[in-house]
Amino acid sequence: MSQAKAGDKVQVHYKGTLPDGQLFDSSEGREPLSFTLGSGQVIKGFDDGVTGMEIGAKKTINIPNEEAYGPVSEEMIVKFDRAQIPADIPLEIGGTLNMHQDGGQVIPVVVREVTEEYVVLDANHPLAGQDLIFELELVGIN
Length: 142
Description:
mainly beta; 5-stranded antiparallel β-sheet; 1 helix; 5% helix; elongated
């Protein structure tokens, strides 16, 4: 039986949880995740976890945040003057907004704090700073 290696297009069913057991993503009820191993399409720890698996194999991997979405970067948390945000934009703590960069790139940000004077927006990935646990099942190699 062949093992998954860099360059292979693989199909994986997965369940992702945080260390406290909270589910953050799963392929249950959907098509398996399909990606090319070693191409950077998925986080490093996930890529590394699938490498070497055989079709039908199942395993659980623990990915430290450094191999997932990295630590929380304080540089990605920005405080804006409340007057800079148009009044028609809903500012709900935990809500997501899209910021547009000068080059036209859209970055999703999470509203962390809202006061009369300022708004704090966080552009870190929602799973930044989190260690992740994945239950994997390799279902295909092409």
